């Protein structure tokens, strides 16, 4: 049976932590500190399934995010602590916050004041890129990291479980083309089973579909990675580093700028 799992982050600003993909990262959680809100319900989400609910505290205000981040950055700067990146992540999809564009502006201003060499990254599931204000905000950040876990419709729906039935792979790929040359595509490779259905997005069919999608999108970079922590669906299996490297090399040989991150 799927494993019951709860939210990861109980504050608006968390860390810094060492990210395997981004370095020393200070996290920004725009979702509730006592619940999860997301437009996907991914089988592998470290924050658990959406069924745990949105909690009672609600979303943090733009002003609270700014104040909390300013306090943390000032403290880190005074202590001369290193910082590579400020990362929007947390208990759900950050771009769902109604003040997301304004919060991006605030974070960029604070970054420039305290840690001008640090990057600002957004980990997004790509569901909100069709909102012009959200897309414009994503264009401002250093690392606009957008999810594409499978370019096969059925597989995407099994793994990511989007809330919106109108969300399709074809619409997603067309939308991601907006960020050609600038966006970073993030793909989780995994195997396993859910509700009696086998899952494997590393088959030749899956990789060829991803190759076609990457070529259409023309991203700045593709990040391939696999499971690193406990997942709510316990029957998922990670793809080991050696195989990730082989798949990455297969893409690179076909002109796709790929990095594999274990």
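Sequence proposed for the structure above (262 residues):
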């Amino acid at each position: 049976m799927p494993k019951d799992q709860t939210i990861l982050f109980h504050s608006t600003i968390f860390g810094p932590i060492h990210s395997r993909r981004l370095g020393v990262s200070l996290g920004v959680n725009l979702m509730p500190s006592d619940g999860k809100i997301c437009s996907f319900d991914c089988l592998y989400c470290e924050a658990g399934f959406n069924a745990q609910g949105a909690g009672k505290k609600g979303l943090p205000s733009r002003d609270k995010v700014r104040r909390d981040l300013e306090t943390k950055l000032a403290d880190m700067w005074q202590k001369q602590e290193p910082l590579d990146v400020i990362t929007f992540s947390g208990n759900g999809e950050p771009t769902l916050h109604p003040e997301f564009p304004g919060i991006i502006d605030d974070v960029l201003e604070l970054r420039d004041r305290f840690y001008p060499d640090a990057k600002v990254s957004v980990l997004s599931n790509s569901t909100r890129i069709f909102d012009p204000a959200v897309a414009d905000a994503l264009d401002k950040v250093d690392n606009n990291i957008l999810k594409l876990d499978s370019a096969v419709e059925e597989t995407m729906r099994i793994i990511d479980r989007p809330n919106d039935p109108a969300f399709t792979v074809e619409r997603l790929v067309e939308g991601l083309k907006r960020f050609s040359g600038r966006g970073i595509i993030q793909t989780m490779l995994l195997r396993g089973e859910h509700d009696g259905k086998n899952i494997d997005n590393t088959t030749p069919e899956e990789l060829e579909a991803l190759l076609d999608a990457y070529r259409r999108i023309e991203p700045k970079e593709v990040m391939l990675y696999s499971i690193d922590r406990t997942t709510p669906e316990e029957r998922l299996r990670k793809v080991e580093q050696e195989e990730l490297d082989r798949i990455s090399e297969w893409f690179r040989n076909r002109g796709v700028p790929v990095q594999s991150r274990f």
